[in-house]
């Protein structure tokens, strides 16, 4: 009788697998539904509960791989065999969290057992972001649009939000395993429900609290879709000259409209080495005359006989005509795109706060951008360049760095979503390259950021998960050794 019941449960578990598989298509990537990040793991965990661990693991790897192929299509800058390989490896790494949960859950039965899955998932995320050339791109925190929930980020970093998402799935399964007994439900309410409710209330309160700071008008200079399509029809030299002169003209327009800080989208200026100094001198003339700060994103083309890659950088000029700093892109989107920078964030102090810059893909790397918290940077000005499939996703990824480190963010994005956010992640202004003819976006941005717990303590929450899992592993191995000795 017992074998028959177990067989039926195993058969029924494929229904859980199917539900989880469907929700995986909305779990991340192209068709994100924030709630799917909570639901899909519930049913995948449930499926694995009634399968032999390794067999269930392989099946979850397979369904994860299939969904990855579809949901990341066009969102990762790769194709062919390498795309399928990366999609597969992403599924393997994620599925390991399900496998370890399945193995450990056999030995731990209390509510503490519900902490194993989210802890392992956070550890996998931590390792992935440390080693992955895509940084935090694709992590679960970027599936969430609830700002009250995201106010946990300045306290725990992205790890706290990821933990809560997966703890929800694990706890539901713990209750399910215990037939939703009233006593277990009460326990879950006190240990899970109250903390979650407190986090949401705290987040809502933080969002309601007005930012007490003067603002500065910042102008983002971009290209319109119509201009881009027109330029594709003319020769390269003409395109470059139009863009370069257009940038200077738009700087003058922005200054006359009250902007105090002006910068362009990624590589809005393109020129060979020998023309750079002349162009910067022209920009300095405008900066001095109109008393503005100008950030010039430059694609510096090497000499034809040189073996060097192009330079992707931004140079900042003060209202006195001084060159404040030049920052080189540290994390190219694909190999050979440009020469790498040293990865050290640079900044300047101004009457409008401490200003720093990074370029586009750099914002996907928490370990790079975390420097800003220690530097007390108030505003990050980020030139970017995207494509249709990753817009507006990629700009919101960048906004999470601002929430983590307490800076206000302005991102000027070619072929994407340009926007500004305050340090709470609240949208201040925006436009969409694909839906607007506006070349200049103005934004009034607070001149003061806010120190965060995360900027002081770093990835302590991820390390707490590591310590917890290692402790549970010690108990697991110890108990297994005792059982072996008893035989």
UniProtKB/TrEMBL annotation:
One of its GO terms (cellular component) is plasma membrane. Residues 216-447 form the CN hydrolase domain. It is found in: Cell membrane. SUPFAM superfamilies: Carbon-nitrogen hydrolase (SSF56317). One of its GO terms (molecular function) is N-acyltransferase activity. It comes from the Bacteria. Keywords: Acyltransferase, Cell membrane, Membrane, Transferase, Transmembrane, Transmembrane helix. The chain crosses the membrane at residues 12-27, 33-50, 57-75, 81-99, 111-129, 149-176, 188-205, 460-477. Gene3D superfamilies: Carbon-nitrogen hydrolase. Pfam families: CN_hydrolase, LNT_N. The keyword NADP does not apply. One of its GO terms (biological process) is lipoprotein biosynthetic process. Belongs to the CN hydrolase family. Apolipoprotein N-acyltransferase subfamily. This is CN hydrolase domain-containing protein. It comes from Maribellus comscasis. The lineage of its organism: Bacteria, Pseudomonadati, Bacteroidota, Bacteroidia, Marinilabiliales.
